[in-house]
Amino acid sequence: MTTDAHWMQLALAEARRAGDAGEVPIGAVVVKDGVLVGVGSNSPVAQHDPSAHAEVNALRAAGAALGNYRLDGCELFVTLEPCPMCAGAMIHARLKRVVFGAADPKTGAAGSVVDLFASSQLNHHTSVEGGVLAQECQALLQSFFQDRRNEARMAAEPLRDNALRTPRERFASLPDYTFEANYVSDLPALQGWRMHFLDEGPKHSERVVLCIHGPGEWSYLFRHVARLNDARVLAPDLIGFGMSDKPKREDVHRLDWHRDVLLEWLDRVSPGPVVLVHSAGGAALASLLASAAPSRFLHVMPAPDAGENVADAWRAPFPDRGHEAALRAMGRTPKRVSGPDAAQAERLMKDAMGYFAP
Hints:
The chain is an alpha/beta fold. It is 33% helix and 18% strand. The chain has 11 helices and 13 strands. The protein has helices spanning 4-20, 44-47, 54-66, 84-92, 134-156, 223-226, 255-269, 283-292, 311-315, 325-330, 342-353, and strands spanning 27-32, 35-41, 74-80, 97-102, 127-130, 163-164, 182-184, 195-200, 208-212, 232-236, 246-247, 274-278, 297-302. The protein has a 6-stranded mixed beta sheet with strand order 7-8-10-9-12-13, sandwiched between helices. It is elongated and about 75 Å long.
């Protein structure tokens, strides 16, 4: 027997198709007696049609396939909780059952905002089930809107003419790196260049862990640490590395300058004391930071290295030689450095928590 998860996977494929076309990634399929009879992806932008939601497109396809606008005995699977318009169309089509993935707290009409399916006044009642592959469905939407925010932010923060910026798609396929991007460009020491950083965990936590990478590395090194919620985790990409701007001049990249940038940035994002975690390559910069502001750092500790080969992650920020001024000035991209794995990250964070007041 084919499971609900199987049909939701097909709906997810339709959602990805919509996302690739620039639409909000929502997909739907209609099934009757275990046979696929209709598919639909979100297309209101392309069709200039406010009704062209994935569910409506799937209902239209199913109606055409079955030769009837009544879809008795059919089930519809959709990646996001239906809106009131789509819920009304489903009820009008006499669907037997509706299954959705992620809940929609803003416009959901299957219980999140209203529940049209539960209305006793209507002359047809469709059963509803939510939460099937909810995490995958929600992650797809979150990634789409995060990319939209990043694009808007990039457009609002023009690139200096003496720098380069790595295209966002260079990072899209890297595993375990789905964090929201944060940028800053108005610090005096930055001179107009834009620095990327991770800011994960409770934003107002008094427990803050600062993760510093070395030459040729970037915040991907600390992806497993950033995923833990024991503390607020800050992980900047030094200018010239990762998702930060890459000045074309090699003489920009001095450790004392990077130190000054990080101290200005730290004053803005975290006024309290922190535990400083560094890679082996970041030891020299960590020492400069601790010496310059000893009262800020509760402890300085090295991060373990899992030793995995993740060369793709280290090449991603540098599509060509024009982006490599920092590498030429400070060191080449490592070949076999991956930072702490998931288990090592948990042990590291546990050790770091011991330096904060209970």
